[in-house]
Amino acid sequence: MSEMSFEDMLNESFKTIRTGEIVTGKVIDVKPECILLNIGYKSDGIINRNDYSADSSLDLTTVVKVGDELEAKVRKVNDGEGLVVLSHRDILTEKNNQKVQEAFDNKEVLTGKVDKAVNGGLSVVYEGVRLFVPASLVSDNFERDLNKYVGQDIEFVITEFNPQKHRIIGDRKQLIVERKAAAKQALLESIHEGDVIDGTVKNVTDFGAFVDLGGADGLLHISEMGWGRTESPKKAFKSGDTIRVMIKSISEDGKIALTRKFPDENPWVLALTKYAVGNVVEGKVARLADFGAFVNLEQGIDALLHVSQIANERIEKPSDVLKVGDVVKAKVTDLDAEAKKISLSVKALLNEGKKKEAAPKEEDTEVADVYTDSEEESEEE
Hints:
alpha+beta, five-stranded antiparallel β-sheet, 7 helices
């Protein structure tokens, strides 16, 4: 038997390693860009920064110290300079891929950080595993600017898992839809018609405002914005306003109609007395039409002054003699509280004044009486 050389014996004392093998080593040196490991092999192992973390700016001296033990996967047995190229990141990726696989199987909710906005969606990192959330699955509403999510932690569920093809798909929209549905159901179970609650104006349109009630939106139609006439919802409210509303109705499919016509503020309650036929009232011209002028008597009550009742003489159109803001004094000629309609007449008030002026005064009546008595005395003589 031939004798083994010292070098042969030394080499035989070291274990053999192969590409793809998992090894454990002790850190013998750390630099910002690499880590050296004693892995019990004839050559030391090296882990470069990009084989430790996906963070290309990470200073390895801040996360690893001499004496630490690390697991790593062999990438190359010899890097050409006598070192074994190792990857700690591959170990973590495999372990985390297993976590993602389990989350996919169990439909578990995960939280990851948005790394960047890419064409068609978001790149998200979860425990070192990179996945993709398509733009259509980022929210339940269309998102024009995805860059606002960069750097944020977002929740999602894995809907497709294929690490071999580097295809891991996350879905955030599903969670949003489910949670909104649950919140809406909880709200619908807690509110009733007639309830008065606070809400936040979410969106204002020409026909009304959508109000967030804390779980579902309700529609405050332009006709329900108050007892008075609302010319433009966009002038009355803006997004973000906190307003008090009353639940007017809840449909079978969960649509909520709102109102700000609170019963205790209804100006028509006292209208039968305040605006009884024959009463003389005063108000401001609120708007003009070809057929007449609408006069605001108080908040929530407008009366119609027909063009034929504006003056004794014929008037072609109300704007010939009136303008918005003018104060008008007139007589109530008709009241329909149920239909919420009041008719006014300046003409009737003017004519009433003329009649009073034409009626004989009390002094004149006395003189007439005296004159009559004198005549009777003369006749007797």
